[in-house]
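Last lecture ended with a question: if I hand you only a sequence, what can you say about the shape of the protein? Today we answer it with a concrete record. The protein is Beta-glucosidase. Below, first the input exactly as provided, then the predicted structure, then a couple of comments.
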Amino acid sequence: QSVPRFPGGFLWGAATASHQVEGGAEERGRSIWDAFAAEPGRIAGGATARTACDHYRRYPEDVALMARLGLNAYRFSLSWPRILPAGRGAVSGTGAGFYDRLIDRLLEAGIEPVPTLYHWDLPQPLEDEGGWLSRGTADAFAEYTAAALDRYGDRVRRWGTLNEPFVHMAFGYAFGVHAPGKALLAGALPAAHHQLLAHARAAALIRAAGREALLVNNLTPVRPLPGGGEAAAAAARAYDALHNRLFLDPLLLGAYPELPDGWDGPLTGAVHPGDLAEIRGSADALGVNYYNPTLIAPPGPEDGLPFAMPPYTDAFPDVPTTRFGWPVVPDGLHELLTGLRERYGAALPPLLVTENGCSYDDAPDAGGRVADPERIAYLDGHLRALARAAAGGVDVRGYFAWSLLDNFEWAEGYTQRFGLVHVDFDSGERTPKDSFEWYRAWIERAR
Ligand code: GCO
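The predicted structure:
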């Protein structure tokens, strides 16, 4: 099959995040993920990210891999506690120097650095003051953004602000399965508003510096349980509001969506006059992280939530799943991108697919080769879905595979391998998988 055409200047990338790949924990401040990992039972296998992929030391080798892949962009994140160990105040010269070296190395290789300021590793001192439940964290984020712009703004054009504020709020503050481990359900909603406010304040600084601000969120097409009638449809609307609209409606339309009963109180309590005006229109581009659609059923009496989330395969048994159990539905990406354009129309800024990928149990065979045909099928299907959306008029300007490297997958520790490159977590050795060669060939033909 031939490779479809992509718009000129399209960004061909791969993505990582500081806490998931860097290691080098002794040369940065403590984050909420260090504290969370120290709590027994929180992370699979009791793993920590103190060393992770040791990207902190091996970044030259990793940039060489990116160059071999033919990337023209790399999405990574800056570790806030590496740059500002206390969360505010003094910049660490050692910590900040790491990103100078990384950025320079990328530029030498012809690869655009696309940093995200925050991918979940909040400095612990800020968590001690309330974390994202506190409005003060948005102020601290603005201070951090100013420091990062001052240091790297000469070389970085596109700035991601926050990564997946929905997942951070839901997993970290509503369900407690990610750091900081709070299970507050609707009480988590202030963490949504304060993240949006933080984004808006950072974006104002980024724009004032003549640069572009990008908000990255996780989005999912929501499918009501087939045959579930109005109850399933209502549950699906509730889930869509919380997952997809909670951040995009205020960002693009200037108003929060209608939330399920009992969920709007904690949110509106956090909103001050003028906040929504600050938030509206504060993104020059939107980063879309897409992995899979979500099946939603009416809640049972015990659920405590306005929806239930049965496994996707309960309704669609023929759909393949990844090691994580996530359904593989490439058309979902086309549906998502075209759906955003339908929902937001002219208010929708240009899009970038900032994450897309899958985990499998990849291991080198006796000859040292890592065969991952499922990942190749996954990437091929999703890139074709993206190309169809672009051909249909959706303004999508880049694609970043998640991930360049196998890495620390949050609560799953090292058990979910998402990389184009296999990492031996004992030796640090990198082995490009078959999907690496496949993506290299795809980019070569598509560029
Ligand atoms: C994110 C993602 C990544 C994950 C990936 C696979 O927030 O951007 O959670 O950090 O590793 O989505 O789960």
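Comments.
1. The mean pLDDT is 98.
2. Residues 17, 20, 163-164, 167, 289, 355, 402, 409, 418 surround D-gluconic acid (CB under 6 Å).
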